[in-house]
Amino acid sequence: MMMGRFRPLLALVLAIVASGLVACGGPAAKIPTTYTPTILQQVELYSPAVAELRDRFPELQSYIQKQDWVNVQSFIHGPMGELRARVNRLAATLLPQDRGPAQARAKELYVHLERLDEAAANGQQVIAGQEYRNALDDFDSFLSLVPTFQ
User: Fold this and answer.
1) How many domains in the chain?
2) Quick check: 101 and 145 in contact, CB under 8 A?
3) Are 120 and 72 in contact (CB under 8 A)?
4) Prediction pTM value
5) In-domain check, residue 72
6) Tens of pLDDT along 100-149?
7) Residue 135 is part of which domain span?
8) Cα angle: 10, vertex 11, 17; to 5 degrees
9) What angle in degrees, to the nearest 10, is found between the helix axes of 37-55 and 83-93?
10) Cα 86 from Cα 43, distance rounded (Å)
11) Is 97 within the bounds of a domain?
12) Contacts with 108 (C-beta within 8 Å, 6 or more apart), sequence order
């Protein structure tokens, strides 16, 4: 009998709490759909470091052509050792519609470099050359998703 008296009161309290939560929720954060000057500044901050690594890729090709496996591996673990961190930082600055594809290309790039390292360890020039070209294609594909500055 006592519970019957509290039901209307409980329903009223729940209605007030629900109304308060809906009213105080506010609008959801708007995700930008175009590159704003602020976002472009962030992209511009990380782009040069990534482009610098891309510009060094011909050095790697030269080592592969010479079958200089020690330098291939040293290059992958040395100068290219920063690649993952730099590319990930740059990808994180991109808009959501570009970020997902960029991260996918970056992962493919890392896989090709790992396979290239393995091919170098085994002295497999043909496989090393294929993985180099695949890595370069993925790198260029990644960079095509990054906005450019004029």
Assistant:
1) 1
2) yes
3) yes
4) 0.75
5) yes
6) 999 999 999 999 999 999 999 999 999 999 999 999 999 999 999 998 76
7) 37-144
8) 90
9) 160
10) 11
11) yes
12) 134, 138
